[in-house]
Amino acid sequence: MTILIIVLAALMGLLLFIFFAGPNLPPETDSIIEQVMDGDLPNVITGKTGFASSGGLDIWYEDILPQDSPRGTILLLMSMGGNALFWPPKFIRALVQAGYQVIRYDHRGTGMSDWVTNWDNKNPYTLQDMASDAIAVLDELDIKQAHLLGLSMGGMVAQEVAIHHSARVASLTLIMTSGYIGDPDVPGLSSRYFWSSLIKGLPLLKYRILGGERNLVKEPIAKTIAYRGYEGLDIKELAELVLFDVRKRRGINLKALLQHQTAVSISGSRFEKLQTLRLPTLVIHGTDDQFIPIGHGKKLVNAIPNAKGMWLDGVGHVFPTPNMEALLAEITAHLGSG
What is the structure's pLDDT at 192? Predict the structure, then answer.
């Protein structure tokens, strides 16, 4: 009986923590969400869309052209579990305004790309399979060569593309990523950060438990505040993106997180093959990244011939980052050299 009481008390404490802890949302949050929910949703997809066939899967893409003839093509590769809409609209607009054709696509298992229903641990897909998806998109659009810009897991997929299809790559921009996530010589995810992230993440569960469109919008707002703070927070834009994804697309596939994580964990080291690359490469990493510590970024710079590093002081594993203007300036300068 005593054990049962202790268990029930612990569960009650956990529920109270989930529902009453977490970041405070700005006071105008509800009114902004209400306005977006009741109004006509803007079309957050402005480019040409289509599907590319890759290994029996349909991969959704969006192709956004600048007003004038493109200076080049940028292919964006999102992080683990993320679909194309995870890229901040302001970031995409800045690249297009700089004169580039920008292509974003849904990784397999996310968004409007095929969700992999026959997946299991004994028969997972790999980062090389995901690299084939990127090449399929370029083939579908008849693009011979593109600048690859990959975030976190997307940076690992970009490395696989460069290793196996180097002629298709004009340059690499690798943001907060690794050449070998299991590298024993580089610090990994610390237990302190794991527990800290778990504590931060638990209160976000209340939005999933409560359900409904309003709470689906509040979840990424709270997550942004918890992990990045209030700087640059655009509640209206986030609400439009989430509601568009829910109403017009298929939302988030939580199973893709496990599938992508497995692809990363079984990928092994790319360092030997990375040393053969002769591509303009910019590695961007936050000095306070606890998820993929900065040692991974510095090892990438040392592994890829003539790679440059940009270290973001005090920045963790977040995107967009503080001071995006400086980051964009560095990226566009790098693209111009490719």
Answer: 64
Half-sphere exposure of 95 (CA within 13 A, CB side): 25
Please tell me the distance from the alpha carbon of residue 324 to that of residue 74, in angstroms, as a whole number.
Answer: 18
**Contact yes or no for 45/111 (Cβ under 8 A):** no
Distance CA 207, CA 222 (A): 9
- Give a three-class secondary structure readout of the chain: CHHHHHHHHHHHHHHHHHHHCCCCCCCCHHHHHHHHHHCCCCCCCCCEEEEEEECCEEEEEEEECCCCCCCCEEEEECCCCCCHHHCCHHHHHHHHHCCCEEEEECCCCCCCCCCCCCCCCCCCCCHHHHHHHHHHHHHHCCCCCEEEEEECHHHHHHHHHHHHCHHHEEEEEEECCCCCCCCCCCCCCCHHHHHHHHHHHHHHHHHHHHCCHHHHHHHHHHHHHHHHCCCCCCHHHHHHHHHHHHHHCCCCCHHHHHHHHHHHHCCCCCHHHHCCCCCCEEEEEECCCCCCCHHHHHHHHHHCCCCEEEEECCCCCCCCCCCHHHHHHHHHHHHHHC
pLDDT single digits (tens) 183-226: 999 877 666 655 666 677 777 888 888 889 999 999 988 888 88
Ordered structural domains, the chain, with CATH: 2-337 (3.40.50.1820)
Amino acid letter for position 307: A
Confidence check: pLDDT of 18 > 80: no
Q: What are phi and psi of 252, to 5 degrees?
A: -95, 135
Tell me the torsion sign for CA atoms 228, 232, 235, 237.
Answer: negative
Please tell me the predicted confidence (pLDDT) of residue 198: 63
pLDDT of residue 233: 86
pLDDT tens-digit profile of 91-147?
Answer: 999 999 999 999 999 999 999 999 999 999 888 999 999 999 999 999 999 999 999
